[in-house]
Amino acid sequence: MMSEELQEALNLAGDAVTRDADGTVRLVGSECGDCGKKAYPPSDVCPECMSENLSPIKLSTQGKLYSWSVVHAAPKGWTLPFIAAYVDLPEDVRVFAHIVDADPDSLEIDMEVETRMATLGSDESGAPFESFAFTPVQKGDS
Ligand SMILES: [Zn+2]
């Protein structure tokens, strides 16, 4: 079984990630019915106005890289090193996630990144676990 801390660290919110019909990985955040503030991970209370009038909203699959850091030391289970980053989605939501399939030296502030699922480590029995991550958008791809 995956340790609770690891699960928490990974932010595996279960239904906070969904897939479109074509397999595109999409984060599901929350939207405040009172002030319109969107958040990820989805919350029960609006971080802006404390309203509890929230509903789920599917977020964009592409965002801009806000900042990142290469992590060389982390709790057991993580595949090291990894790139931890903040990604700004068009909904004005800042998401903390891994960046995968990227050379850290190739990353640039504000570069376009998109969601995908990735194997980020293994649990106590050695079984790989997956979570959402972002990867740089390949220019020229359709
Ligand atoms: Zn609100």
Q: How would you characterize this protein structure?
A:
It contains one helix and nine strands, in the order H-E-E-E-E-E-E-E-E-E. It has one domain (4-136). With 142 residues, it is mainly beta. A hairpin with a 5-residue loop joins strand 1 (17-19) and strand 2. The strands form two sheets. It has a five-stranded antiparallel β-sheet with strand order 7-6-5-8-9, with no helix packed on it. The model has no long low-confidence stretch (mean pLDDT 88). It starts with a helix and ends in a 6-residue tail after the last strand. It has one helix at residues 4-10; strands spanning 17-19, 25-32, 38-39, 54-58, 62-71, 82-89, 93-99, 112-122, 128-136.
Q: Give the number of helices.
A: 1
Outline, from the CA principal axes? globular
Annotation, overall tally of beta strands: 9
Unique ligands: zinc ion
> Can you list the strand order of the major beta sheet?
7-6-5-8-9
Class of secondary structure makeup = mainly beta
What is the count of structural domains? 1
| Estimated radius of gyration | 16 Å
Intertermini distance: 39 Å
Please give the largest β-sheet.
5 strands, antiparallel
Q: Which regions have little confidence, pLDDT < 50, spanning 5+ residues?
A: none
The share of residues in helices is: under 10%
Calculate the mean pLDDT score and round it. Answer: 88
The proportion of strand residues reads: 35-45%
Q: What letter string, H or E per element, gives the SSE order?
A: HEEEEEEEEE
Features:
five-stranded antiparallel β-sheet, 9 strands, 142 residues, four-stranded antiparallel β-sheet, mainly beta, single chain
